[in-house]
Amino acid sequence: PTPRASLKADQSHSAVANMISMVNAALAFAGQHAVLNGVARATAPVMQQKSQSVPFLDRPAALDGTMVGDVGFDPLGISSGIPMAWLRESELKHGRVCMLATVGYIAVDMGIRAPYAETLSVTSLTAHDATVATGQMWLLLIACGVLEVAGAAGIAATLSGSDRKPGYFAFDPLGFGKDPKQMERMELSEIKNGRLAMLAFSGIVTQDALFEHAKNFPYL
User: How far is CA 118 from the centre of its chain?
Assistant: First the structure.
């Protein structure tokens, strides 16, 4: 071949090589861009739902709304370390006790006495120390101990994964459980009134203890 033909051939080969290099570079850039986009999409933060009761806090993962009365209130994050079944069992128990205690505390200070206790001249605030001094508090302690032992099996079953609801002891003398919708309303009422009673009883006892002139209901 002539020198001019060889030069043209070299130029053609060079042009083809340049085109291939440009295509490879474009493909490499596009592939890298796609991979980066995929990583960005995979690592993009997922917005966590906010608590219904405290809107500026994230809703705790364990409070998923499956329990009656769950409004996502757990500012201390207790549900992240303790099973929800145990927490709900405890909440229901303390709520029930405080509902009874609030009524009983006010009733005693309004002059209502249990049978064989009509002559006692104590208030609800002083009754504890008086019954401890006489030994009568042992009767209440034994009764509470029996109830705790009797309920331990149910609590253990719930924590082991059975289908028993926390706080359920088959106590439904009026038959509210026959209608599922009515039962759900009653469960919601119980948990709301129990929470209110825990706050109310704490407030009543505190008010009664701090202010000597507040000896009777409404403790003002």
Answer: 43
Identify which of 52, 49, 43, 76 has the alpha carbon closest to the alpha carbon of residue 61: 49
CA–CA separation, 176 and 5 (whole Å) = 102
Distance from C-alpha of 197 to C-alpha of 21, rounded to nearest angstrom: 78
Three-state DSSP class for 89?
A: helix
Quick one: angle between helices 137-159 and 84-109, nearest 10? 160
C-alpha–C-alpha distance, residues 2 and 67, integer Å: 91
| Degrees, nearest 5: CA angle 70-72-78 | 105
> Residue 34: which residues within 8 A CB-CB, separation 6 or more?
none
Query: For the chain, what's the residue count?
Result: 220
- Using CA atoms, how far apart are residues 165 and 191, in angstroms rounded to an integer? 13
| Interatomic CA distance for residues 177 and 78, integer angstroms | 31
Q: What is the pLDDT along the chain (220 residues), one digit of tens a residue?
A: 544 445 444 555 555 555 656 645 554 555 544 444 554 454 545 567 888 888 888 999 999 989 999 999 999 999 999 999 999 999 999 999 999 999 999 998 888 887 777 777 888 988 888 888 888 889 889 999 999 998 898 899 998 989 899 998 888 888 888 888 888 999 999 999 999 999 999 999 998 888 876 667 778 7
